[in-house]
Amino acid sequence: MIRFYFHPTPNPAKVALFLEETALAYEAIPVDTRKGEQHSSAFRAINPNGKVPAIVDTEGPGGVETVVFDSTAILLYLAEKTGSLLGSDQDRPALLSWLMFIGTGLGPYSGQSVHFQTAAPAGLDYAVNRYRREAARHYQVLDDHLAGREFIVGKDYSIADISAWGWIDRASRVFKGTESPLADYPDLARWFDNVDGRPAVARARALLGSHVFKTENDEAALKAMFPSNYAAT
Predict the structure, then answer these.
(1) How far apart are CA 184 and CA 171, in angstroms?
(2) 39 burial via Cβ count (<10 Å: 0-12, 13-18, 19+)
(3) Contact in structure between 211 and 9 (CB atoms under 8 Å)
(4) In whole angstroms, what is the distance from residue 175 CA to residue 183 CA?
(5) For residues 144 and 135, is the Cβ–Cβ distance under 8 A?
(6) Quick one: which H or E segment has residue 30?
(7) pTM of the prediction?
(8) What is Dmax (Cα atoms) for the chain?
(9) What is the pLDDT of residues 8-58, one digit of tens each?
(10) Which of 66, 73, 79 is nearest to 51 (CA)?
(11) Model pLDDT for residues 91-135, shown as the tens digit of each residue
């Protein structure tokens, strides 16, 4: 059994999609980050970094309960555990490369683009420009790579596609105010439509929407989500 700690944001969405693609038995446990539940001692015992997603595998290696956090680590762990969505042995170098490209580039720059356009104080034009343009550059890298390809790695759908889907699904927030955020990336748009149409995506979305989370960005929520912006008490 997999205990899956989630909030309806891009990185947990990746894990939700993997779980639905593979039909692994799991229990979904919501963590309301605007309420600060990620900072509880119980959750910090699972992820010391205080972020979602995280999983507890009650049947880890050797039958021992195992904790895994960070979406890329979770995808690799679960793919190796199940032997699913890893591609071929020959695909392994490319799989690792694209997973790290998403985990260290596409994801963080997209997240910062969203943050500085929606949560940060007004007037930080340099930061908005910096992160939005870097996100666009990462989109272009993927678009160029996907020309003539159905999937990101090899010939088959893999955890690289799942990982990228989690963030490309939020393109309208990354490029706030853009009517068709994938219009400049036709091959990426084609790939996204292909992945987004999978039945497991609808099930993952249903899971992410199965709990009512706090939506107000009041002072308590901002302190919970962005504690480094506040003096330690």
Answers:
(1) 12
(2) middle
(3) no
(4) 11
(5) no
(6) strand 26-30
(7) 0.97
(8) 54
(9) 999 999 999 999 999 999 999 999 999 999 999 999 999 999 999 999 999
(10) 73
(11) 999 999 999 999 999 999 999 999 999 999 999 999 999 999 999
